[in-house]
Each structure stands twice: as structure tokens, then as C-alpha cells.
Amino acid sequence: MHTLRAISADGIPRALDKVERYRLLNEPAEAESICRDILAIEDDNQEALTMLILSLSDQFGSGVSHIEACDTINMLSDPYRKAYYTGIIKERLAKASLKQGGFGSNYDAYEWLEEAMEAFQKAASQRPSGNEDAILRYNACVRTIERQKLTPRQQDTREPFLE
Prior knowledge:
mainly alpha; single chain
């Protein structure tokens, strides 16, 4: 059986650079692994937690559950970041649903995008001056709904059949 080796605290800045590089190379599992190595040393490292959320959400639709990413949100200390990255998770779940397709996936995607837009709206109200990221993401969600012609799930208003 193999044992994981710890990185040094001095190596964290360089490791964070590598996380970003692996994400840009579309290798989110490698980025996730490095985040876990950093968090084993500094369990409250806000940048590593953020990158872990992003690395996990990069893998939605390929067998990675959203549950751990959502749980990691609670470890963020800044209310803006909590709201913003909640929106990111919901938006990426919507995109994964659209990509996978299947019965009801358009309705699921619409619901995820609505939740993402709510989170981005909350983040926008708490954003630092000059930071328009939440508004940009909100607008991207609106455009996805329009481009994909997504609509809410219709409520079944039929009366049940009595025997």
C-alpha cells in the first residue's frame, strides 16, 4: 500500500500556480489532487478551497458529484465568494445536464441556471468595488437560457384518475 507524501508549507504558492496551470490544460483531476495536498497542510487556505471547488466542478458530467463542491463552499470565509462560487457550481451543473442530454435534462438545466442566477444576484449585491464577475456570470446564464430555448418544467394540473 502506498502512502501520500506531504508537501512543505513553502511549496504552497508554487503548488497553487500548478493548480491554475492544470486547470488551463483541462486536467482538473490533477488540479484537484494538488488542492488536496495543499489543504492537507493548510486546511483553511482560501485559494486552495476555491480552486478545489473549481476543479471539482470542472469534472461535473464525468462522474464527479456536486456534493463535495457544495460542502466545500461552507469552508469559504467570505460571503461574496460563498455566493459567487455557489452560482458557479449551479451554472456548471446546468451545462453538464445539457451536455449529457436525456429526458428532462433541459428542464433540469433551466432550474440549475435559475438557482445560479439567484446566487450571482446575491453575490453582486456583496461584490467588491470594480468586481463585475457575478454580473457577467448572471448574464451568461440568461444567454444560455435564451440560446438553448430553455423553459421551466410544466406543472401537471390533471386530476388523478379515480377507480
